[in-house]
Every structure is written in C-alpha cells, then in structure tokens.
Q: What sequence folds into this?
C-alpha cells in the first residue's frame, strides 16, 4: 500500500481511536481502512466544469476559482468530521499563517466537502471559524468552502487520487490527510501529506505552481537552494545549487572588492598628480 505514511497514519490512528470509543473491534475496521489511499497524479488536469454550491448559496464551477491564473491549495474534507478534517484544516491554517502571505493575494484556498448531505449553511459556519482566526481580513472567496452532489465529488476525488469511503458502522467518512497544490490552470502540482504543513513548504510549492510569478526576489533565491523531494514529501536543501549560489555570491564580493581597490588606487594616483603640479 503506497500510503502507509504521512497521509494514512493519522487516519489509522484516529480511526482506531473512534472504533475503540464506539465499541467496534479495531481488527474489524482494518480491511476498510486499507481502502484509504492517495494515488499521486501530478501533472493531471482536474475537471473545471464540475458544479458545486458555495457558502453564499451560489452555484459555482471549479473554473470560477482558476480564472485568475493563481495557484490553489485544496483540501477535501467535511464539516461534521469528528477529528481528522479539523486537524488537517488547522494544519493548513497554521502553515498559511507562517507564510505571512494573505489568501487572495497571489493564491487562494479551497475546501470541497466529501459529504453530499452537507449544506451550504454547515460549510459556511466551518468557513467562518477559520476566517475569523486570521489576524487580517480574508474574504470568503479567498478561502471558499464548497458542497455538492456525490457525482461531482467522486469525479474530483478520482482525478486527485483521493481514496475514501463511508463507514456505515460509525456513520463517518474514512479518508487520508492531504493538501493538494494546483496551478492556476487547475493542474495538480504537488501533494502535502500529514497534519502539519510548514509555511516554508507551502510557500515553495505555491511558487513552483505559479512558475515563479509570486514571491519576492529573496524568496526565489531561497527556493533556488531547495528542491522538492517526493520521498521526503517536502523541500530539502539542494547542495549543488547552494554551492553555485555561494560561488556566485563569492564572485560578486571579489569583484566588488576589486572595484573598490581600483577606485582607491585611481583616487590616490590623482592626488599624487595634483601634488606634483
């Protein structure tokens, strides 16, 4: 199973806790848990014509969130999830807060419910909880929460490789913990697994997804020293690029020092000529 790692382990732990709490044998729940998976489909275009309803009770399509060409951080979750969804959304909020990049300014966030019974009012209350936590104003459009029909949810989940199921015994969805990074055109760029999403990794992945269109010059220099490691599921220091950057900085310092020395010598020479006159 490909996902016995950061995405599945939180689900296993929390689902085990829930089954014990409800009196269900953990061993009986394991076969169902093995249905949980994420099949990474990086480079795949998501269907932008899928229809949902936003928290203002307005009909929308996914293309409405990709019409500005800015990258999107997407989560599949649902508002009545007892634990895991809130932990993933909490982790995403903390990572975004660490970035100090305001949602809606160069990127946006999008949460799509996997529960077809969820209403826009329920999603609105969940959305408001997170928007109010930001120390600065964030519009509902910048982190929208969508609800929709089963067919639309399933098609999106299938393209994203998000494998989940509904457990009839405890009336809850079992699902992995993952944040999807999509380009402004709706192409899957990266996957972030687990319950914590460091601001640095989110920032770098958004810069990658935007092809360098967002971020300061300093951010881009820092990104040059890192690269995304699929095995580590994050950005790691890229030694060769660091050495190249260090060499370039050293060369600039040497050239600058030589230029100062040359100017000093020129000035000294001019002063000597004036003294002779």
A:
């Amino acid at each position: 199973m490909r996902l016995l790692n950061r995405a599945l382990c939180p689900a296993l732990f929390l689902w085990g806790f829930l089954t014990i709490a409800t009196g269900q044998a953990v061993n009986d729940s394991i076969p169902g848990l093995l249905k949980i998976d994420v099949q990474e489909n990086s480079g795949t275009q998501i269907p932008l014509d899928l229809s949902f309803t936003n928290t203002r009770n307005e009909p929308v399509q996914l293309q409405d969130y990709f019409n500005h060409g800015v990258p999107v951080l997407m989560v599949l979750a649902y508002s009545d999830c007892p634990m895991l969804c809130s932990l993933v959304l909490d982790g995403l909020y903390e990572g975004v807060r660490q970035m100090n990049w305001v949602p809606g300014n160069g990127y946006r966030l999008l949460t799509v419910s996997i529960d077809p019974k969820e209403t826009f009012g329920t999603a609105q209350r969940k959305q408001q909880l997170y928007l109010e936590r930001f120390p600065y104003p964030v519009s509902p459009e910048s982190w929208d929460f969508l609800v929709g029909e089963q067919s639309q949810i399933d098609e999106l989940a299938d393209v994203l490789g998000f494998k989940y199921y509904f457990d009839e015994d405890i009336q809850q969805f079992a699902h992995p913990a993952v944040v999807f990074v999509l380009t402004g055109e709706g192409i899957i760029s990266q996957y972030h697994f687990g319950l914590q999403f460091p601001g640095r990794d989110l920032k770098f992945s958004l810069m990658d997804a935007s092809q360098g269109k967002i971020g300061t010059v300093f951010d881009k220099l820092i990104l040059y020293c890192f690269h995304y490691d699929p095995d580590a599921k994050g950005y790691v220091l890229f030694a060769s690029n660091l050495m190249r950057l260090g060499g370039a900085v050293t060369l600039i310092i040497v050239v600058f020092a030589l230029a100062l020395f040359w100017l000093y010598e020129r000035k000294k020479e001019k002063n000597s000529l004036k003294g002779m006159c």
